[in-house]
From TrEMBL:
Pfam families associated with the record: Acetyltransf_1
Residue ranges occupied by any N-acetyltransferase domain in the UniProt entry: 3-158
GO function term, MF aspect, one: acyltransferase activity, transferring groups other than amino-acyl groups
CDD domains on file: NAT_SF
Residue stretches in coiled coil: none
Gene3D superfamilies reported for this sequence: 3.40.630.30
Protein name: N-acetyltransferase
Length: 159
């Protein structure tokens, strides 16, 4: 499958709302929440006014001109927040494009950008039951702390 990973254009930032919704982990047998859930403050922190900070960075994956995934970072007080110097990492692909290696490639590209920008680390939060835990570990994220249902993971960019 031929895909391209490139920097997200400012005109494409509204797509982050779709990918934010797609990034919500829904356990087997649980009904998906309404799309309006992304409007709560705990979720809006990921996308509101995206591009207004020098720490906001986003890449997309596309196939035949269609955007199929996004990875983005920003320094924010989100579920994966560890400190005010560490960007938080978010990634999502439409379901039909998962498991094909595109997400790993997107993550590696964003990690390279963060490393080149001299960030020391990047963090994320993930449900313990989410299959993506293994994917994050594959690209160098390690468990930093854990709560009842989720891990906070960090990728040390200085290694």
């Amino acid at each position: 499958m031929d895909y391209t990973i490139r920097e997200m254009k400012k005109s494409e930032y509204p797509l982050l709302n779709d990918f934010l919704f797609e990034s919500i982990f829904i356990s087997e047998g649980i009904e998906a929440p309404p799309k309006s859930i992304i409007n709560i403050p705990e979720f809006q922190v990921y996308v509101s006014d995206f591009g207004s900070s020098k720490h906001d960075k986003a890449l997309i994956a596309e196939i035949d001109g269609r955007v199929i995934g996004a990875v983005w970072v920003r320094i924010m007080n989100d579920y994966g927040h560890v400190n005010d110097e560490t960007p938080s990492f978010a990634i999502s692909l439409y379901k039909e494009y998962r498991g094909l290696g595109i997400g790993i490639a997107m993550m590696r590209e964003m990690l390279s950008i963060l490393k080149a920008s001299e960030y020391k680390q990047v963090s994320l939060s993930v449900q313990k039951a989410n299959y993506a835990v293994k994917m994050y570990q594959k690209v160098g994220f390690e468990i930093y702390s854990e709560k009842e249902e989720e891990y906070i993971m960090i990728n040390n960019l200085q290694l």
